[in-house]
Amino acid sequence: MTKKTIILIGFIILKFVLQYVLLSSEYDLHRDEYLHLDQAHHLAWGYLSVPPVTSWISYLIFLLGNSVFWVKFFPSLFGVLTLIIVWKTIEVLKGNLYALVLGATCIVFSSLLRINMLYQPNSLDVLCWTAFYYVVILYVTSENTKWFYIGAIVFALGFLNKYNILFLLIGLLPALLLSAQRKILSEKKLYFALIFGLLLILPNLLWQYNNHFPIVHHMKELAETQLVNVDRLDFLKEQLLFFIGSFLVIIAGLYALLFYKPFLKYRFFFASLIFTLIVFLYFKAKAYYAIGLYPVYIAFGAVFLSDILKSGWKRYLQPVFIIIPLLLFIPMYNLAFPNKSPEYIVQHPEKYKNLGMLRWEDGKDHALPQDFADMLGWKELARKTDSVYAALPNPEKTLVLCDNYGQAGAINYYTKKGIKAVSFNADYVNWFNLNVQYKNLIRVKEYDKNNDEFKETSPYFKSSLIAGEITNKYAREYKTTIFLFTDAKININKRIEQEIKETKDYSNNTND
After folding, report:
1. pLDDT tens for each residue of 83-99
2. 3-state SS assignment for residue 116
3. Does residue 377 contact residue 475 with C-beta atoms inside 8 Å?
4. Which of 40, 204, 237, 316 has its CA 20 to 30 A from that of 49?
5. Strand 422-423 relative to strand 461-469: parallel, antiparallel, unpaired?
6. Virtual CA dihedral for 58, 106, 8, 320, nearest 10 degrees?
7. Element (H, E) at 483
8. What's residue 60's pLDDT?
9. Each residue of 459-499: pLDDT tens digit?
10. Residue 194 contacts by C-beta under 8 Å, 6 or more apart in sequence?
11. pTM of the model
């Protein structure tokens, strides 16, 4: 085993260990994770929320036992694979051992630790961006057309994981057209590879077509409720924070792409970064959408710095570029991860507020960062719902209807009673089981000071009561209420069918 291999294995182990120790046991899973895990039980070529790859991984997690360890393992794995690809990119660019260590350090001690903490499509998205750029570099280096087909596979995997990878192509294409590498576009096999890639993603495109392109509705809703609160200046500021420890390395990489002779054939990567950021800014994208851009520039920068710092007094600067990410990781460790109790954060809000971490999607500041608040209260909700469900004389005829996908997913993940909670929110609208004639209703309702749930629903049942609520005041779901309605006076199934139809009709009309 070579020295390089031993060092790489050390970084891999470090990366895995950090992903598990940076998450306090006081927190549950994130609301998005519950939805993704539930998709394992409803495999399809597409979903209202995400493309299908996440459901395939969720099914594998389910087969492995569905434990939190495996839920956290896969985003950690994708982070490790990103690290390995950056390592391999540096090797292709002829970087020495110092370049490899510098690049690995920059990747490990970065915002990827936060991204790879949650089971969401983002970790695989960053991996696919990095892998696609790696394939482009391999083609430019070798001009072997086999990389066209491998690139098609990588892009298809990225597309079937998260449509965000389309921005990669949107930024890369004009950069190629303006460079000497536009000769790539005259290669006949490139277009065969494009057809091959199209065939790989075709099942999902057909699913979108057959379901009236729900991605359009999803993007409109996202733009109206979340992206409208995105500030373009804040977007640019956050780009600096994602890889703050490796900022100088990235700048060095960009400089090298313009002026470093061995990198002249890769110069289009400089323009690609600019074009991609412009597109993200135009669409007011969330800042983290662009994270996949940067690992490849760390590779360029590490190789360039290893060359210019290899002799004379400059060699004494080599440790500096490695120490900077480590030093800046210290404040990141104290702020960016849910390794502090909610009570601690509430008592020490200043630094969190100064970094904008307390601002949620609604554009307002709250007690905890939104992601942290989204990891609280779920076990309590599931336990109390289980208790209500188990006390009923005929629980199998009880519909558990939630306001949002987080509530439904958490109940289904933690339940000990086999509950299959549903919602008219997100993918759950397609997962109702109407083969059961329901008699009772457990209604999980978000807190609303004007809540009229009793007034609206109790006339249709013989009895009703409030059976519980979320008491964790730091949870985003604080005061979410569990209503119990028993002995229906009406046909619940018909009402549900009507609601499902209205929900889908609204989505389809919005798409039109």
Report:
1. 999 999 999 999 999 99
2. coil
3. yes
4. 237
5. unpaired
6. -160
7. strand 481-488
8. 98
9. 999 999 999 999 999 999 999 999 999 999 889 999 999 98
10. 152
11. 0.93
State the first-to-last Cα distance of the chain, in angstroms, to the nearest integer.
Answer: 60
Measured distance CA(71)–CA(29) in Å, rounded: 9
Q: What angle do CA 74, 76, 77 make, to 5 degrees?
A: 60
Beta carbons within 8 Å of 74's beta carbon, 6+ residues apart: 57, 60, 61, 119, 123
Whether the Cβ atoms of residue 476 and residue 376 lie closer than 8 Å to each other: yes
Distance CA(200)–CA(209), nearest Å, equals 16
Of 300, 240, 271, 320, nearest in space to 99 by CA: 300
- What pLDDT shows up at residue 439? 94
Residue type present at position 362: D
Helices H, strands E: what count in the chain?
A: 23, 5
- The token pair that represents 461 in the structure block: 């049942």
85, 77 contact by CB (below 8 A): no
Instruction: Give CB contacts under 8 A, 24+ apart, made by 227-236.
Output: 227/283, 227/284, 227/285, 227/286, 228/284, 229/361, 229/362, 229/363, 230/284, 230/285, 230/286, 230/287, 232/281, 232/284, 234/287, 234/356, 235/280, 235/281, 235/284, 235/285, 235/286, 235/287, 236/281
Widest CA span in the chain: 87
Give 168-181 as a 3 state SS string.
Answer: HHHHHHHHHHCCHH
Which amino acid is it at 92?
A: V
- C-beta separation of 94 from 133 below 8 A: no
Residue with tokens 């609160």: 229
Give Cα 343 to chain centroid, integer Å: 26
Query: Coil, helix or strand for 400?
Result: strand
- Alpha-carbon gap, residue 442 to 400, rounded angstroms: 5
Question: In the β-sheet with 481-488, what is the strand arrangement from edge to edge?
Answer: 422-423, 398-402, 440-445, 481-488, 461-469
